[in-house]
Amino acid sequence: MAVTYLPTLKQLQYLVALHDHGHFGRAAEACFVTQSTLSAGLRDLEVLIGVVLVERTRRIVRFTPLGERIVAKARRVLREADELGDLARAAGRPLTGDMRMSVIPTIAPFMLPRILPKLRADYPDLRLFLREEPSAAACEGLQNGRTDCVLLALPFACGEVASAPLFDDRLFMAFQGTEADSLPAAITDDTIDGSRLLLLEDGHCLKDHALAACNRPETRAEATMMGTSLHTIVQMVDNGLGITMLPEMAIAAGILDHTSVTARPLASPDAVRQIALVWRRASPRESDFRLLAAILSEAKQGRA
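The line above is the sequence of LysR substrate-binding domain-containing protein; the predicted structure tokens follow.
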């Protein structure tokens, strides 16, 4: 019987890393190997399957069309391999071992400082690897297996996922100084000056939530999208450059401290985002994710 030689998981990891980084040196660093080791592993893979996957030049790394298809398949294989370990962990004690969680930037600085000490104290065998990134990148990482779960704000299309809603996070309008004194206690969408509205740059789901809260199509064209973080936008408002929308969790965490900025709730029924934990459907660690979601929810309610 003929012997069939199959690609190793290590070779597939090298291939995916090169695709992600587009550079042999950076891919080798990500895999914790030397560049020569990674290059040799990829050459062995190409010899094994008998096709060229990567066109190598001095300046660029270009994947062949077949190479792109094999990378996509390699991601699925690596994800399935990761889930073999997840099956074993799921059979043991809850929240143990490695867990990779992505958190969007409009949640991470306001929620994580409160919850991480409790997780470390109650689940010392959990190694939580955190990545802060916008919703689209986080969901892409979830689908290709780079991330195990994502803490984000809904509504947002994140693919075929299961989710555990945690709590609702209301949106507020923020103004410089006493600018809001002449406005009603709850800000209505018809009182918002869209030409002065400062929002996060594209890629942040809070921008879409804020525009939905305005309920005025023309606001999308008028709004100035220029902030890279909520802290930056608050400083812009404090310096009289415009107005903005802020989530309640950021205000509760003190983002307006030491500024002259005041915040008023929005009267719109759309002025809310739902904070949720999402993971791939049929993940063997679903019980872990639901337990983590319960802990996150309790932290918001002050019982953590």
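Note on the example: Residues 65-90 form the longest helix (26 residues). The mean pLDDT is 84.
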